[in-house]
Specification:
mainly alpha, three-stranded mixed sheet, two-stranded antiparallel ribbon, 33 helices, globular
């Protein structure tokens, strides 16, 4: 009697119900029903436990099978794909559930390695409308990632045919990408803007991720970044561990597209870790590809090659997949900065414009300005010994041998010829897209690319000035510095050294402040050629603004981007050939920035500060390299600079000077 009264009044809180379930022996349909109800209102880890207990306690075989299948989905969302597979095998014999089992198994496989798209599409044809739509949307993401335009349009048609009512963020994204693939950027961007607007009040991580993707494709990097980071926070809050690396991927792409390189780097580092931990290696490859591009933008050869090898990306069945294309972009950037523009053109043309509707839509936009720059450099270099296409930095041959050993098809002969129609096609697509966005950063890159292609020097100068005006309307330091460098180089080569020096000074100072040592060195080289005295630059420390971030793991970043003012020309230069992004990491700080006068760290760049704090906490160089996805050689380089700037000679002295990070 007492037990019956207790069971009638049993607590309804999640943990209390789960404690009862753990203690229960035998069958209890009432408790099983309570646990099923609990699973509908709790995050995946608790929901999975409740469903498994419900399956054990119920006497109804149908309820048991449904609970096990639901538990498999919740376990997968919680980031445990192997465990989800075991649960699926327990119900695979149920004819009633066969299609749903196959659909979930395909969803898990698609996230793991991009396979099973055909199984996913087959299951979608037999699932209820809402489940079928989810399966089809996932299939569009995978096909888009593989760069197969024709198949994307085919799958997208099935999604759009299922539309009912006013539409959704996901449907607008699909309609927008379909229009972009059909070479109709204005219609496409209208749909993509609608997708970002619809998601403004959403509390669903999946919807926010798709809206962020739409924002990137529409050229709205900052809006996309805000949506993606909200998706990260909500996925963590909801316990959707498997969704977190997808949201971080969207944040990393948004940061890359919007010029928020430190934010992009942070998101990709965390995303790679989360993807590997949750059994999604294909997604980890994409994160490593983004990290490789970010290192290449700084001109950090060792870290770029390290990250390319960590990606281990290969071609998809239809051409370069997303991770592979990112790695090719990164290697093309290294070719460009190391004086091999013809190799850059051949490499980027291969991934940006491919036959029969192939190629990644994001990269076809973002990398085109580098393709145009490489084309211009290749033409100019014929009469410029300092930029000869055959020049190779120390270690370049070694890097290419490493790539050959990884994947034979990665080898690229730097003497490959230039394909003008291919380049023209790529630029035409980029120009139409940039014009349709109406966004100042992309209009600046459009004007800069036109300047590089202009035959008349005066026309080119006008276009460079137009690009700088668009940069003034709102842009990032790195893109503007790059335009200043290219304009200064143009002016010098057309016998206007005085005008060139102002732009080259600005470029050298900004690149140094941003840790892009090789670009700063190139600007300085052109300055000397333009008759400037031997001036050098150093990132400002005390009192300088900085890029500050709060770790995404602490509930999403309260991030602020405050561009660093260029250091004045009368400063000392300490080249940072493999410098990290300008960022300061303060775990648990609630978004507050560090004082630049903090004892022991004054004068260090943000990356040096981060490494110094890890050393002070006892980490080895190899451990730091693994955690930050840098090469050990890059870590050693930073540490030597830390010792020099702080006047210490050992790790022990360093630990006494600064608190561990």
């Amino acid at each position: 009697m007492i037990y019956a009264q207790f069971m009638q009044k049993r607590p309804r809180t999640p943990r209390a119900l789960l404690r009862l379930a753990y203690a229960a022996s035998g069958s209890d349909d009432g408790l099983a029903a309570d646990l099923l109800e609990l699973a509908d209102r709790t995050p995946p880890p608790l929901a999975a436990a409740a469903l498994r207990h419900a399956a054990r306690l119920t006497t109804d075989a149908t309820v048991r099978a449904d609970a096990l299948l639901a538990a498999a989905r919740q376990v997968w969302l919680a980031g445990r794909p192997a465990e989800a597979g075991k649960l699926l095998r327990r119900v695979a014999h149920e004819p009633r559930l066969r299609v749903r089992v196959r659909g979930l198994a395909a969803e898990i496989a698609v996230h793991a390695d991009g396979s099973a798209v055909d199984d996913l599409l087959s299951a979608a044809g037999q699932l209820p409308r809402e489940s079928a739509l989810d399966a089809l949307l996932l299939a569009t993401e995978v096909v888009h990632r593989a760069g197969d335009h024709e198949r994307y349009v085919e799958v997208a048609r099935h999604v759009l045919d299922r539309r009912s009512g006013p539409g959704s963020t996901s449907e607008d994204l699909v309609a927008g990408l379909t229009a972009l693939y059909a070479d109709d950027p204005r219609t496409g961007i209208a749909h993509l803007h609608a997708a970002t607007t619809r998601a403004g009040v959403s509390d669903r991580p999946d919807e926010l991720i798709r809206a962020a993707t739409a924002g990137v494709l529409a050229g709205a990097g900052d809006s996309a970044y805000a949506l993606a980071t909200r998706g990260v926070r909500l996925a963590r809050l909801n316990g959707e561990t498997a969704t977190v690396p997808r949201a971080l991927e969207a944040a990393a792409f948004a940061g890359l597209a919007g010029g928020r390189y430190p934010d992009a780097e942070l998101a990709a580092v965390e995303g790679a870790d989360e993807a590997l931990r949750t059994g999604q290696p294909a997604l980890a490859e994409v994160h490593f590809g983004i990290l490789a591009v970010l290192a290449a933008l700084r001109g950090d050869r060792a870290t770029t090659l390290h990250r390319v090898h960590r990606a281990g990306a290969a071609d998809s069945s239809t051409g370069p997949g997303q991770a592979r294309a990112l790695c090719e972009w990164a290697l093309g950037l290294l070719d460009l900065i190391e004086g091999r523009p013809a190799a850059t053109v051949a490499r980027l043309a291969r991934i940006l414009v491919t036959p029969s509707g192939r190629g990644n839509a994001v990269l076809q936009v973002a990398a085109t300005p580098h393709l145009i720059e490489a084309l211009a450099a290749a033409e100019v270099s014929l009469g410029e010994p300092t930029a000869a296409p055959g020049r190779r930095n120390p270690g370049a041959a070694e890097g290419h041998r490493l790539l050959d050993a990884t994947e034979g098809r990665w080898h690229l002969d730097a003497t490959e010829g230039l394909d003008a129609p291919v380049v023209s096609q790529a630029f035409d697509q980029f120009e139409r897209w940039a014009s349709a966005t109406g966004r100042a950063p992309w209009l600046a890159l459009r004007a800069r690319s036109r300047a590089l292609l202009a035959a008349d020097p005066d026309d080119a100068a006008d276009l460079f000035r137009e690009a700088l005006r668009e940069h003034d309307r709102g842009d990032t330091d790195f893109a503007r510095a790059h335009t200043e460098l290219l304009y200064g180089r143009h002016l010098r080569r057309h016998r206007q050294p005085g005008a060139a020096r102002a732009h080259l000074h600005a470029a050298a100072a900004a690149f140094t402040a941003l840790g892009a040592g090789p670009w700063a060195a190139e600007a300085t080289q052109h300055l000397r050629a333009a008759g400037a005295p031997a001036m050098t630059y150093q990132p400002r420390s005390a009192g300088s603004p900085a890029v500050m971030y709060q770790p995404l793991a602490a509930g999403g970043p309260a991030m602020t981007h405050q561009p660093q003012a260029p250091a004045g020309p009368a400063m000392t230069h300490q080249p940072q050939t493999s410098g990290g992004p300008a960022m300061t990491h303060q775990p648990g700080s609630g978004g507050a920035s560090a004082s630049p006068e903090q004892p022991g760290t004054t004068g260090l760049t943000a990356q040096q500060d981060r490494i110094a704090r890890m050393v002070a906490a006892g980490a080895t160089n190899r451990e730091i390299a693994q955690q930050l996805y840098l090469s050990p050689r890059t870590v050693d380089h930073h540490l030597r600079n830390v010792y020099a700037r702080l006047g210490v000679r050992s790790r022990t002295e360093l630990a006494r000077r600064i608190p561990p990070g």
